[in-house]
Each structure stands twice: as C-alpha cells, then as structure tokens.
TrEMBL record:
<dbReference type="Pfam" id="PF00672">
    <property type="entry name" value="HAMP"/>
</dbReference>
<dbReference type="InterPro" id="IPR036890">
    <property type="entry name" value="HATPase_C_sf"/>
</dbReference>
<dbReference type="GO" id="GO:0005886">
    <property type="term" value="C:plasma membrane"/>
</dbReference>
<keyword id="KW-0067">ATP-binding</keyword>
<keyword id="KW-1003">Cell membrane</keyword>
<dbReference type="InterPro" id="IPR003660">
    <property type="entry name" value="HAMP_dom"/>
</dbReference>
<protein>
    <recommendedName>
        <fullName>histidine kinase</fullName>
        <ecNumber>2.7.13.3</ecNumber>
    </recommendedName>
</protein>
<keyword id="KW-1133">Transmembrane helix</keyword>
<dbReference type="Pfam" id="PF02518">
    <property type="entry name" value="HATPase_c"/>
</dbReference>
<keyword id="KW-0812">Transmembrane</keyword>
<dbReference type="InterPro" id="IPR003661">
    <property type="entry name" value="HisK_dim/P_dom"/>
</dbReference>
<dbReference type="InterPro" id="IPR004358">
    <property type="entry name" value="Sig_transdc_His_kin-like_C"/>
</dbReference>
<keyword id="KW-0472">Membrane</keyword>
<keyword id="KW-0418">Kinase</keyword>
<feature type="transmembrane region" description="Helical">
    <location>
        <begin position="164"/>
        <end position="185"/>
    </location>
</feature>
<feature type="domain" description="Histidine kinase">
    <location>
        <begin position="246"/>
        <end position="440"/>
    </location>
</feature>
<dbReference type="InterPro" id="IPR036097">
    <property type="entry name" value="HisK_dim/P_sf"/>
</dbReference>
Length: 450
C-alpha cells in the first residue's frame, strides 16, 4: 500500500488530493464549529434569559405551591432553576455585564448577579456551569429570596452528535472528490499506459504500433513525437532491408558468371581456389538475404513445445539433450528455431562442442548453450552480437563466418520480448542464454508445433 502512494501517479495524486481536501475541510470545520458554538451559546443564552424573566414574573404573582410547580416545569437538563436565600456562587459583589444589562432592562428595579462559570470547575453542589444568573425576587410571597439559574454545558454525547452531524457531509464530500479526481486521473494517464505498451513493442522490433493523437496538448505532442519516431525507424529498417536484398540479388548474377568462367578454366591450380572463393561468396550472399528476410519476418505465432524443438535441434547435430516435460509457449516457431540453431551452430563452429539445456522458472523459459571453447574477450561481449561483427577475426568461412548468426538470433529473441546474453564461463568456454517471458501454457489439450 505504501508503494502505491509513493511510486504510482495515481497514488501520489490520491495522497495529494486527500491531504489538500482534508486540510481545507478540517480548517473550514474548525472555523465553522467555533463560530457555530458561539452562535449556539448565544441562542441558548437568549432563550434562557427570556425564560428567566418570565419565571421571575410568574413567581412574583403566584403562591408558594404554584411557584414551586412552575419552577419544576421550567428546569431542564441544561438549565436548572432554584429559589435560595441568596445568590449562588456570589461573594455579594454584583457583576455587571451584557447579560446583566439585558435582564435589567426586562426586570427594572431587581437586584441581578451574573457570574460566568467554569465548565471544568465545580460550583455549588450541582457541578460545572457555563453561567450563573441570580435575580432577587421583589414581590409576592417569596420577596427577598433569590431565583438562581444555572446554565450547564451540553453533554459530551450531544456535543459529539452535533460534530458528527457536521463532519459527515464534509467526509462525504472528501470521498466524492477523491473518487471523481481518481477517475479523471485514470482517464488522463491511459495514454501513458498505451505509450508504455507501444514502447515495449518497439523495443521488440515492432514499429507498426501507432498512438492515438488525442487528449491534452502535452499528450498529443508526445503521441505525435512517438508516431514520428516509429515511422522514421520503420522507413530506416525498410530501406536497410531493401538495400541488403538489392546487394544480395545484384551479386548473385556476377558470382554465377564468374563461377561458369572458373569451371571452364584449364589451369586446375587456379580453377579450384577460385571456385572455392566463389562458393564462399555465394554463401555470404545467402546470409545477407536471409538476414534481410529475418528482420522483416511477419511469421504468425503458434503454441509450440520448446522442449521438443530443442530436442530436435540437438538430435540433428548428434548432441545429448536431457528432455523434460513439455514447455508450451506462443512463439514464431520457424524464427525461434533458427535463433536456437544459430546459437548451437556457433558453439559447434568455434568450440567443436555444445551442451544444451532448457529450463522453466515460473513464466520465464531459459534456453542455454554452453561450450568449452576459447570464449570471447570481455570487452567484445557487448559488440559481438552486432551485424557483421565476428566472434573470430578470421575471414575464413569455416571459422569466422560473416558475423550475422548472433545478430539474427538476438533480433528474433528480442522480437519475442526476450533477451540474449553472452558470458564467459569461469571454467572456460562461452555460455549463451536466451530468456523468454510469457505465460507458459498447460500441456494437456494444447496444440503443439515442433
């Protein structure tokens, strides 16, 4: 969960949105709650003062029993009235404030005491109060006694009930804004996902993928730039293939003519070396043509048993191979067989031996060819797979080759989304390892192509 909020755009946006909205809502809630509390207190005070004034007038006009009944009915859970011999919580010194002024205006000629209470301190035996208002009764049977009004704070459950009633809409708006924001962000980041998928396809050699050039300006510009790059690479690859194919085809005719002339030469000491050289040139031309065809390969993918394919390659070359359970993968079987064969043939050509293995770890299949030959210099391991770069510097066809075998194998593997890596073995020799990702299919009931 933590990685979601730190590594993905959605997570970072959600975190930023939550923090921003939460801060704004809490700030607004604090301000509104403070103002609301003061407003509620003022409303309560106005109501209680009105009840106090009416109660004083009723007691002055009633007998003791009627006054006691009125007093009992007027007492609530948050405002308690009582008649005492003196004012509650007063040292006898009157305190004049705004509340006292308002009561004096309603009850002229009455002695009034107002004491702001402390909700955290115990006053009298009735507990903490917000305010104590005492009015001396001036008429009637209770003349000279004091009517004390004790205003208590709201109960915690009531306070929290009011707060939750206020916070629920705020949190609902937070959740709504978060859902809407994430939905909008999801729509905005879809082009980035398409760009990532198209880039992976381009890395495998598929330059036919194009992005939709719609959306915000920045997304459109990125899509246009990517499509332009794909088009230019496709044109470059097409030109390269045409050039190689043209060179190969154009060389065939003069090589054939030279071979015919060489075969009719009377000097056998010159004829045989010339024919051998022309044969080598013919093979090189075929390699060039094969390379141009392989780079333009559009073979359909089929579910193929790679274990069977590796076994057939080894059997054709009289190599030992420890076959295991079928490994089914959707591949281009002809191309992949060519890549595997090139690696095995390279090992046989340079080292005279090859050890082939095929393993599976999860959804990754690894094809490995090991030999006991001289290996390759460490500084050339990264460049030896480039076109026309030979692992052995000789120009001899039997050992040096034209330098296209590894290039073709690498391109085919990359086109399958895999990786071809070369490394020198500590005990001597070279190891060529092909890693192919993909969902390995169950063997039962699957169509197979060897």
């Amino acid at each position: 969960m933590f990685r979601f909020f730190t590594e993905s755009i959605h997570g970072r946006f959600a975190l930023l949105l939550i923090a921003s909205l939460l801060f704004c809502n809490l700030a607004a809630a604090f301000l509104l709650a403070r103002e609301g509390t003061a407003f509620d207190a003022a409303i309560r005070m106005q109501r209680d003062m009105g009840r106090l004034v009416a109660l004083v007038e009723s007691i002055e006009e009633s007998d003791r029993e009627t006054g006691a009944a009125i007093l009992s009915r007027s007492t609530t859970g948050y405002t308690r009235f009582s008649i005492d011999a003196g004012p509650v919580g007063s040292d006898g010194a009157p305190q004049i404030n705004e509340v006292a002024h308002e009561i004096m205006q309603a009850l002229p000629g009455h002695d009034i005491r107002v004491i702001p209470g402390n909700p955290l301190a115990a006053v009298h035996e009735r507990g903490p109060t917000l305010m104590i208002i005492s009015v001396r009764i001036g008429e009637g049977v209770r003349k000279g006694e004091w009517l004390n009004s004790l205003v208590y704070p709201l109960a915690p459950s009531t306070v929290w009930g009011q707060k939750w009633a206020f916070f629920v809409p705020l949190f609902a708006s937070l959740a709504t804004a978060l859902l809407v924001g994430l939905r909008i962000l999801q729509q905005m980041t879809k082009p980035l996902k398409r760009l990532a998928i198209a880039s992976l396809a381009a890395g495998r050699g598929d330059h036919s993928v194009r992005l939709i050039e719609t959306g915000p300006q920045e997304i459109r510009e990125a899509a246009v730039a990517f499509n332009t790059m794909q088009r230019q690479i496709s044109e470059f690859e097409s030109d390269r293939r045409r050039l190689l194919a043209s060179i190969g085809h154009d060389l065939r005719t003069p090589i054939t003519c030279l071979r015919i002339r060489a075969e009719v030469m009377e000097d056998e000491t010159q004829r045989e070396p010339m024919i051998e050289t022309l044969e080598e040139m013919s093979v090189m031309v075929e390699d060039i043509l094969n390379f141009s065809r392989d780079t333009a390969n559009a073979e359909a993918r089929r579910v193929t048993d790679l274990m069977q394919m590796a076994g057939q390659i080894c059997a054709e070359r009289a190599l030992d191979f420890a076959a295991g359970a079928p490994i089914l993968l959707e591949v281009q079987p002809v191309s992949l067989r060519r890549a595997f064969s090139n690696l095995v043939d390279n090992a046989l050509r340079y080292a005279g031996n090859a050890e082939v293995s095929l393993t599976r770890q999860g959804d990754c299949v690894t094809f490995t060819v090991r030999d006991a030959g001289p290996g390759i210099a460490e500084d050339r391991l990264d460049t030896v797979m480039e076109a026309f770069v030979r692992g052995e510097e000789s120009r001899c066809r039997e050992t040096g080759g034209l330098g296209l075998g590894l290039t073709i194998a690498r391109d085919i593997v990359v086109n399958h989304g895999g990786r071809l890596s070369l490394r020198n073995r500590p005990e001597g020799g070279l190891s060529a390892e092909v890693s192919l990702p993909g969902t390995v299919l169950p063997a039962a009931g699957a169509a197979m192509s060897g």
